[in-house]
Amino acid sequence: MIIHDAQFLTSNSRAELCPAPTLPEYAFIGRSNVGKSSLINMLTERKGLAKTSSSPGKTQLINHFIINEKWYLVDLPGYGYAKVSKTSRAEWTRMINFYLRHRANLMCVFVLIDSRHAPQAADLEFMEKLGEEGIPFVMVFTKADKQSTAQTKALLADYLKKMSEIWDELPRHFLTSAETGLGRDELLDFIAEVNRQ
Ligand code: GDP
């Protein structure tokens, strides 16, 4: 897929106020610092499209972008901030649950996972919840350039082994790097494929 147009549309603190669900939608989510903004900018080839400076204390917003006038890309607020208050965490849970359960045009959630890290409870639990709710998702391993290919392979194998203890069928997964562009074609091809269905 060639991205010829990528525009910021809206920021909402309430899922109820998202744009009308008239186009297929793909949401990106992950722990803070996982590389979500960098990945969105890499995919769209727009350096400043997603802001890389989101700090934990800030209002958590659902950001909609429209791509090629054909589909929505959504930057969801991340989870796993250690310093976040109970109130903010509860608000995040309410907002994300509402969004995930009610967004009629949501085709797939991209769950971003730092390829350097061993499986983290927050990610595993989030994916289990998606599974329980029947929400389609894939895993996107980020920052593949941070270690050697052999190390990435070993880390990935460990992660998938852990996942296979939980899941009968492993979710689809992609390996990416915002630095090198690794995985870009695969992710965009996947979106194009789902858009065609
Ligand atoms: P976010 O908080 O999930 O949006 O994460 P950011 O996109 O802001 O990235 C967090 C940090 O990781 C920044 O310093 C990025 O430059 C860095 N980063 C993100 N993706 C990659 C990547 O693919 N490779 C490398 N080497 N660094 C990355």
TrEMBL record:
Bilayer-spanning residue ranges: none
Pfam families: MMR_HSR1 (PF01926)
Domain EngB-type G: 22-197
PROSITE patterns: G_ENGB (PS51706)
Position of the signal peptide: none
UniProtKB keywords: Cell cycle, Cell division, GTP-binding, Magnesium, Metal-binding, Nucleotide-binding, Septation
Cofactor(s) the protein needs: Mg(2+)
Function: Necessary for normal cell division and for the maintenance of normal septation.
Family stated for the protein in its record: Belongs to the TRAFAC class TrmE-Era-EngA-EngB-Septin-like GTPase superfamily. EngB GTPase family.
Record-given protein name: Probable GTP-binding protein EngB
